[in-house]
Amino acid sequence: MRVDSEGVEVKLREIEELLEKLGKEHPKEIAAFSRFLRETLDNKALTTREKELIALALGIAAGCEWCIYLHTRKALEAGAKPPELVEAGLVAVLMAGGPALMHLIPLVKAINAFEEEHGGL
User: Fold this and answer.
1) Which of 16, 32, 38, 111 is most deeply packed, by most CB within 10 A?
2) Exposure pattern of 42-52 as b/e (b: 16+ CB <10 Å)?
3) pTM of the predicted protein model
């Protein structure tokens, strides 16, 4: 599969731009969401790595490319390995069916892009 590092980075920049814009226009709501996000993803009963794998699977099941790219990056940063990402993706396919299978395409693109960016994972 062709590596689309630029497309992955574009999607990640779009997330940053959206949050920046909404943060200016709706600061209370975005601040509350950001606090909730930090609290939820903090290590408690589950590690951040485990939570990011769950978020990745849910992003795949929901068909959210932005979520897939973001949580692929976050899971890798939290220590997940590419086979774990694919396995989480396959669990999403198990639960969400064929459309989720097609969303493994952006997962593989993201893995390839981050491997290229970091010289292998």
Assistant:
1) 111
2) eeeeeebbbbb
3) 0.87
